[in-house]
TrEMBL record:
<keyword id="KW-0798">TonB box</keyword>
<dbReference type="InterPro" id="IPR037066">
    <property type="entry name" value="Plug_dom_sf"/>
</dbReference>
<keyword id="KW-0998">Cell outer membrane</keyword>
<protein>
    <submittedName>
        <fullName>TonB-dependent receptor</fullName>
    </submittedName>
</protein>
<keyword id="KW-1134">Transmembrane beta strand</keyword>
<dbReference type="InterPro" id="IPR012910">
    <property type="entry name" value="Plug_dom"/>
</dbReference>
<feature type="domain" description="TonB-dependent receptor plug">
    <location>
        <begin position="60"/>
        <end position="168"/>
    </location>
</feature>
<keyword id="KW-0813">Transport</keyword>
<keyword id="KW-0472">Membrane</keyword>
<keyword id="KW-0812">Transmembrane</keyword>
<dbReference type="InterPro" id="IPR039426">
    <property type="entry name" value="TonB-dep_rcpt-like"/>
</dbReference>
<feature type="domain" description="TonB-dependent receptor-like beta-barrel">
    <location>
        <begin position="376"/>
        <end position="932"/>
    </location>
</feature>
<dbReference type="GO" id="GO:0009279">
    <property type="term" value="C:cell outer membrane"/>
</dbReference>
<dbReference type="Pfam" id="PF07715">
    <property type="entry name" value="Plug"/>
</dbReference>
<feature type="signal peptide">
    <location>
        <begin position="1"/>
        <end position="34"/>
    </location>
</feature>
<dbReference type="Pfam" id="PF00593">
    <property type="entry name" value="TonB_dep_Rec_b-barrel"/>
</dbReference>
<dbReference type="InterPro" id="IPR000531">
    <property type="entry name" value="Beta-barrel_TonB"/>
</dbReference>
Length: 974
């Protein structure tokens, strides 16, 4: 396909002129400048993330956004993920507004490259991940203790190691806090739901004659759920094509997939239902699952963090951190069902009416019973008469499917640092972290018990209905007709499941930093350097219970044990060399370079794999005059495969699919496609009647690969920072970025596999056709655990993103009216390229969303803040803009806009208003309104995109589903 990119200048003219005239956003600054917004405007530089060299006269050349704690608190943030999702360099990751696909954590996704490519640090060091994907649960980082957040976008592996392909998020803690601070906040939506309560206490002070300092912070947060049934726009599952009420074919009536000829259907549908008397009737309509699902997940978390330093000698300092967090998140989806798993049904089943048995045994379609049947006893005379059916029955009698995720993490860090000379220092540390992740999956059904309970018979002695196999306390289950399952039968087939994941991380590191013993004749300062090593080991053991391992869970699928670990030795060096200083047209010219080598060894179940990779960067900055600096970097970054990627065995699950070429009438009249559909598993008699994806979902198979290789990226950034002397308080930065990733570890999109098989390979023995396993009963891609599309991981994909960041900060006094801080942070995305394999098309997802472009990626997005401070009063107005987003298949030219009721999500503006007032210097009261104008999300339908992102007919993580929200808080300091 042809790839088109937008014209940035046109976008600036369209959106920028009015914005710049108003003034500009977010406490975001670049190139080492502290964001303002305090009582005293300060322009002093700070040491920022992006370099290990700690010298105040040398600044990081990577674009850096600095987010200050005052602004974070003013926006009512209780989980830092809530704040980070709104910065223009990011798209929303997993968080409170994710239900399907939420595994109990909160993540950040820079540049829409996936959270696995964003490295999370606390005080410059890795935080312990919460699962085997290496993700950090941002809920575990105490918001009350954050001093600032520094965000580096673009590759940073030469400085920090693996995972820093999209960038780095570094949380700087308040290690110098003095006194006692108590904070409480309460929030609630205008509609009276979504309550959130947050409490924290922080205490700090010096000891041992000021040689030591300690800080302790503890916090508690509890949040209530909001269901999709609580909002009109998400109350019903709507089809993207015409907004007709839809839902799941698995209904409480019980449905037989009738694509085989033996079930006549007066309505002409390809499935039949049961009425309450066990009669077969035309398909009764889909089941609306939306009201049960969540728009906001409930949460309860505890955090505790202790920081301490102690001056051992004049030149040696001990530092430490101990972190603890317990975070519990619950997701809720509609009641489970049998979901067209293959069942064996006995035709002498007393729950079946004579009419139903007649229909089920009319093998030749002549309307006559083809099995000997006794209408008086309502039994088939041949007791061995059985049929195999693909059976769907929703089971509301069992209750909603709840997933309860509890992450308990702790991390201990200890180290020593000191000075060797006035210009040379050292640092050595060790840290250990462990996360126990308990997953409880509630209210599913056992496939084996459902099958056993379905095969009911009439006891010839007592006349009672019993199980054909009465072992294990079997209770007969009347699946045929809504409301026919007794409470006892529901208890028999229902069960809960559990999985425990243990993740450990051990890191030992050391470094030297200081000045090299020379300076160039053209410079007035010596070169600086940093060099050191890191040893890191990560291990994960995932232990699902037997029912998950055996695939006996119908509604939650299956899970497989993981036992994997890796260890890596890394050595790094970095230098900054002033080439020219204080010369005409060269106030400063500095070379910036770094290199890192990493030696990996993976171990999965005793099988090992080793590899070595190199990362590096080279660039610099040039200040022709003191007001202007021009910076640029080339960086090679890597991401080594994580523990899940190397250790997860083949695992049945569910995925997304728009269209199945073998479904419905698609293959009819096309001899080649018909032959290929049959060769890939469609029964010949079902051609023309195969059911398509159910609510955009099909079965799939996930899995890792112990021989995966690291991803490699090339990052280019070039930009300028303008800080004019004639306008004190003004800082403007403009940066171009390009991040290209090759050898990407990818899970093929299910649609890509299907399309590759039926439109590119067209060979049943080809690589992609071999990844397709159809339901043997009806040819669909839904059914038992042996049915689905294999999307196990491979090194095959290519990703690239390209765009421009613009940041403007301007702070000035208003004479007797206080001060005004204006800030603007905007990103214009030129391209977001995705290619699953080198023979597939390259898709540009900039400005698109759907089943290929999963997370909406607006081409232009910005956040603008205006903060007015007058004596003890602070008022903050935040404005977030998201450009329009189009359905991906429309953007690719594969479908027409007329195929969708809402093919484009229009641009969106959100405004948040907050005020804080300090009383008697010790007490600060704050109140705010988020989504000030109560903007409602644009409805696109449930099958517009992937189910992880597109839920409740909307994109709830990108577009606010809760509506106008009020919060009130108070802080007391002593």
């Amino acid at each position: 396909m042809n790839i088109h990119t937008s014209n940035f200048c046109a976008a600036l003219l369209k959106y920028g002129a009015s914005t710049l005239a108003i003034s500009l956003t977010m406490t975001t600054a670049s190139w080492g400048q502290a964001a303002t917004g305090q009582d005293d405007i300060t322009l002093e530089e700070i040491v920022v993330t992006g370099s290990r060299i700690q010298r105040q006269d040398l600044t990081a050349n990577s674009p850096v956004a600095v987010l200050e704690s005052e602004t974070i608190k003013l926006t009512g943030t209780t989980n830092i993920e809530q704040f980070l999702r709104d910065i223009p360099q990011a798209v929303p990751g997993v968080g409170a507004q994710a239900n399907n696909g939420n595994d109990g954590g909160a993540t950040v996704d820079l540049r829409n490259l996936g959270e696995e490519r964003t490295l999370v640090l606390v005080d410059g060091k890795r935080f312990v991940p919460f699962d085997n994907q290496g993700f950090v649960d941002l809920s575990m980082i105490p918001t009350s203790l954050i001093k600032r957040v520094e965000v580096v976008t673009g590759g940073a592996s030469a400085v920090y190691g693996s995972d820093a392909i999209a960038g780095v998020v570094n949380f700087i803690m308040k290690d110098d806090f003095e006194g006692l601070e108590l904070d409480a906040q309460y929030g609630i939506s205008e509609r009276g739901d979504g309550e959130r309560k947050d409490f924290s206490i922080t205490v700090g002070g010096s000891f041992a004659d000021d040689r030591g300092h300690a800080v302790l912070s503890m916090g508690y947060t509890v949040a209530d759920e909001v269901t999709q049934g609580d909002r009109k726009f998400s109350e019903f599952a709507l089809a993207a094509a015409d907004f007709s009420p839809g839902g799941s074919f698995t209904t409480p009536d019980g449905v037989i997939d009738g694509t085989f000829a033996l079930v006549p259907d007066p309505g002409g549908d390809q499935a039949v239902s049961f009425d309450s008397n066990g009669n077969i009737v035309p398909f009764a309509g889909t089941f609306n699952f939306n009201p049960f699902n969540l728009l906001a997940t409930p949460q309860e978390k505890w955090t505790a963090t202790a920081l301490a330093t102690y001056q051992v000698t004049d030149n040696i300092e001990f530092y430490s951190r101990a972190s603890f967090a317990n975070n519990q998140v619950r997701t809720i989806i509609a009641p489970t069902g049998t979901f067209f798993f293959p069942f064996s049904l006995n035709l002498n089943n007393p729950f079946l009416s004579a009419q139903a048995v007649n229909a089920l045994t009319d093998q030749d379609g002549d309307g006559m019973v083809d099995a000997e049947f006794d209408t008086d006893s309502n039994n088939v005379v041949d007791d061995d008469a059985n049929i195999d059916i693909a059976f769907g029955r929703r089971l509301p009698e069992v209750g909603t499917r709840d997933s309860i995720y509890e992450n308990t993490a702790y991390q201990f860090l200890g180290g020593f640092k000191g000075d060797i000379t006035d210009t040379l220092s050292w640092d050595i540390f060790a840290q250990y972290g462990r996360t126990k992740r308990t997953q409880n999956f509630v209210n599913d059904v056992s496939f084996s018990k459902a099958q056993q309970g379905m095969r009911a018979i009439t006891d010839p002695v007592t006349g009672e209905i019993v199980c054909e196999d009465s072992s294990g306390g079997c209770v007969p289950v009347n699946f045929f007709g809504a409301g026919n399952i007794s409470e006892e039968a529901a208890r028999y087939i229902a069960f809960n499941l559990a999985e425990v994941n243990n993740t450990e991380q051990t890191i030992i590191g050391g470094s030297f930093t200081g000045d090299l013993p020379f300076e160039l004749p053209s410079a007035s300062a010596p070169a600086a350097f940093a060099a050191g090593f890191e040893y890191r080991k990560e291990a994960n053991e995932s232990l699902p219970d037997d029912n998950l391992v055996n695939g006996n869970s119908i509604g939650f699928g299956s899970s497989t044990p993981v036992d994997a670990n890796f260890r890596v030795w890394e050595f790094f060096a970095e230098t900054k060399v002033p080439l020219i200083q204080d010369a005409p047209f060269a106030e400063s010219l500095v070379l910036d370079a770094a290199v890192r080598v990493a030696d990996y060894k993976n171990d999965v179940g005793g099988d090992s794999n080793s590899f070595t990779n190199w990362t590096y960067k080279v660039g610099g900055e040039w200040a022709p005059i003191s007001d202007l600096r021009i910076r640029g970097l080339y960086q090679r970054a890597v991401r080594a495969p994580n523990l899940q990627e190397i250790g997860l065995p083949k695992t049945p699950s569910t995925g997304d699919l728009d269209t199945d070429p073998c479904s419905g009438s698609n293959p009819v009249g096309n001899a080649a496609l018909t032959a290929l559909c049959i060769a890939t598993g469609v029964p010949a008699g079902d051609i023309g009647g195969v059911n398509g994806p159910i609510s955009g979902q099909i079965n799939n198979f996930l899995g890792g690969n112990p021989t995966l290789e690291p991803e490699k990226s090339n990052t280019y950034t070039i930009g300028a920072v303008f800080q004019p002397e004639f306008a004190p308080g003004l800082i403007v930065s403009l940066d171009y970025y390009s991040i290209e990733i090759k050898n990407v570890i990818t899970q093929y999109a299910e649609q890509s596999v299907v399309d590759a098989c039926y439109t590119i390979e067209q060979d049943a023995s080809g690589e992609f056709c071999q990844r397709i396993a159809r339901n043997p009963l009806n040819g669909s891609l839904n059914g038992g655990t042996e049915t689905g599309v294999d999307v196990r991981l491979v090194n095959a994909a290519f990703n690239k993103t390209e765009g421009i960041d613009l940041n403007i900060n301007y702070s000035f006094d208003l004479d007797n009216m206080g001060s005004l801080d204006l800030s603007f942070a905007g990103t214009h995305v030129f391209k977001t390229l995705k290619q699953d394999a080198d023979f597939l098309v390259v898709d540009d997802c900039a400005g698109l969303a759907g089943t290929v472009c999963l997370r909406p990626d607006p081409k232009w997005r910005f956040t603008q803040t205006t903060q007015w401070t007058y004596e003890d009063l602070t008022v903050l107005l935040r404005w977030q803009f998201l450009d329009s987003v189009t359905k991906d298949t429309v953007g690719f030219g594969e479908t027409s806009p007329s195929d969708f009721m809402q093919p484009t999500i229009p641009s969106e503006h959100y405004f948040d208003l907050t005020a804080a007032y300090t009383v008697m210097e010790r007490y600060t009261l704050r109140a705010g309104i988020n989504n000030l104008f109560d903007n409602q999300p644009t409805v696109v339908g449930n099958d517009f995109g992937g189910t992880t992102e597109n839920s409740g007919n909307i994109y709830p993580a990108t577009y606010d589903p809760i509506g106008r929200y009020f919060f009130f808080g108070a802080t007391a300091r002593f």
